[in-house]
Amino acid sequence: MIRIALRMLTGDTAKYVGLIGGVAFAVMLMAQQASIFVGLMLRTAAQVIDVVDADLWVMDPRVIYVEEIEPLPESALWRVRGVAGVDWATPFFKGLTVARAPDGRLQQVFVLGVDDASLAGGPPVMLQGSVEDLRRPGAIVIDRVGALFIWPGEEPAPGKMLEMADRRATVVGIAEASAPFTTFPVIYTRYSEALRFAPPPRKPLSYILVRAQAGEDIDALAERITAETGLLALRWQDFAWRTIRYYLTRTGIPINFGITVALGFIVGAAVVGQTFMIFVLENLRQFGALKAMGVSNGTLLRMVLAQAGAVAAIGYGLGIGLAAVFFEVTGRTNVDLRGFFLPWWVAAIVAFAVVVIILVASVASIRKALTLDPAVVFK
Amino acid sequence: MSAVVTARGVAKDFPSGDGTIRVLHGIDLSVRSGEMLLLVGPSGCGKTTLISILAGILSATEGAIEVLGQDVRHLTPSAAARFRRETVGFIFQQYNLLPSLTAAENAAIPLVIRGERLDRAARKARAVLDGLGMGAHADKLPKQLSGGQMQRVAIARALVHEPPFIVCDEPTAALDAASGHEAMRQLRESAVRPGRAVVVVTHDPRVYGFADRIARMEDGRIVELAEDAAAIRRMTEH
Ligand SMILES: Nc1ncnc2c1ncn2[C@@H]1O[C@H](COP(=O)(O)OP(=O)(O)OP(=O)(O)O)[C@@H](O)[C@H]1O
Ligand SMILES: [Mg+2]
């Protein structure tokens, strides 16, 4: 009878395509909206995520997210270096300044200053040039998309010049950096250069990056640093999450976007639920005939669940595939959507949502079939 | 001749407003092995209600119904479903074929309901369709068939599992006179067998000639029973 149930489903091609298409559309809507939301939130922590060589970020305990810098005194660096288990600790400068392109255009940029000696905390991926070139005076590395903002229509390449705080900077390399929430270009330079490019506060040290000695327990080290220096030490994941949580709770953006995501789920649920319920109700007479001929309610239930399962599985596969393709394509072709992707757990949540929706729709519509008086077939 | 179906004192109430309304009043009827019994009467007299009760689709309010010695009145819903799939063949006025299955697959449904695989069941159904002259149409979908052909698929579906009891509600009502006559002839020829009882509800006096006996109903009662050819002829002329 399951075979027959599936044949009932595929019998009317137009309806079948509509049903699958409806589910696929809903899945795509849910996955796409939720992924963009997640991507946007990750962008708020882009510069934390991009530092790949440190185990811990050390900061003033008052820091609640990465953009709100509470500068540290230079002495903090020495105190952190003195904590047992620290392999290295380097200064990290993070500031904002205005860059002037040769044609006079102004552009707000992030300036990230990395340790003069080790260059720790530098760009995660170099596309052109080498991080080592940062050692040259006035040298900067700029992120690819940032270069496109500053020099529109030009291929990003080393050799270009900028002016920041009336000082000339030479691009020596192009990096791939995670898109920041504000989409400002990201400029990497040495710590000492950064203090000249960006107006430094009275105390210039934004963060301290720490690498633990091999075999050291990172969490224990973080606690030790806090105990001995009074500074807050966080794993990058915790700092990123702290930043994301700030945006989630303190700004209206996530609420508004969250409503959009929720609407995506509600619209998706309505589409999936409605289309499937209509399918079952349209087939009520067929179910009635089968019931008259002796199909038990248990079998009827299995038939509807098989139909629901098939619709959910195919629609989900199609929709999630489309969402993945969307991010794959836009990630390559559209600089504004770069870095957005479909997290596996968003796919899992959407799968769960579809299962719940289709189960509810099945139960709601199967009730009609189960309580159906088989006598309808004589009507 | 032994009775396949026996009804004694069958009454049926339907809820109506605050109370109930009685649509069958003490029906006594038996359908014999090897006979085709026609159930006739004006619209609303209770024909459909009566065969629904005999076939285990509705339960009677009063009375006793036995089919092959089995008490049909006091079945649980699942036992009633089992009774229907094992004992009864159905032919409906609206055919009730599944539009996405071929003729052979539609005719195979009762076997599939009993647990056979669809492809094996369809092979058996094909033989039954062959016997009804429908062999050439076995792989067509219902929408590619005429009304008469669809009703023949429905006849095959009622026969495929060789049930001892077949009920038909107005099998010719949706057909023109010629195909209605042809459908009744085929039903008569293929369905009536020793050991099997066939009940046909009809409005159409032109098919009375196919009957072994005719029971005429009025207002929920059987008011006349024509038991021989002469009595059937008299009823036809009326
Ligand atoms: N489910 C029901 N609820 C209430 N009343 C019903 C129900 N089913 C049938 N009736 C009533 O019972 C009476 C007999 O109906 P039934 O369908 O058995 O008549 P019938 O002889 O088959 O008529 P027709 O020739 O029009 O098909 C009618 O008055 C009908 O309105
Ligand atoms: Mg009727």
Please report the total strand number of chain B as a whole number: 10
| Number of domain modules of chain B | 1
What is the share of helical residues of chain A?
40-55%
- Classify the beta-strand content of chain A into a percent band: 15-25%
Name given to the CATH homologous superfamily of chain B: P-loop containing nucleotide triphosphate hydrolases
Helix fraction bin of chain B: 25-40%
Structure description:
The complex is a heterodimer of chains A (379) and B (238). Chain A is of the alpha+beta class and 379 residues long. Chain A folds into 2 domains: 2-44 and 252-378, no CATH class; 91-207, no CATH class. Chain A has helices at 2-11, 13-44, 46-49, 75-81, 144-150, 191-197, 218-229, 236-250, 252-282, 284-292, 297-333, 344-370, and strands at residues 56-59, 86-100, 106-114, 125-128, 139-143, 161-164, 167-176, 186-190, 207-212, 232-235. In chain A, helix 1 crosses helix 11 and helix 11 packs antiparallel against helix 12. With 238 residues, chain B is an alpha/beta fold. Chain B has one domain (32-46, 74-237): P-loop containing nucleotide triphosphate hydrolases (Rossmann fold), CATH 3.40.50.300. Chain B has helices at 47-54, 77-87, 103-113, 118-131, 147-159, 177-191, 229-237; strands spanning 3-16, 19-32, 35-40, 62-67, 70-71, 88-91, 165-169, 197-201, 213-218, 221-226. The radius of gyration of chain B is 18 Å and the shape is globular. The mean pLDDT of chain B is 92. The chains are: A alpha+beta (379), B alpha/beta (238). The A-B interface holds A 1, 3-4, 7-8, 10-12, 285-286, 288-299, 374-375, 377-378 and B 48, 51-52, 57-58, 77-78, 81-86, 88, 90, 92-94, 96, 98-101, 105, 109-110, 112-113, 117-118, 169. The complex binds adenosine-5'-triphosphate and magnesium ion. Residues 47-48, 169 of chain B line the site of magnesium ion (MG).
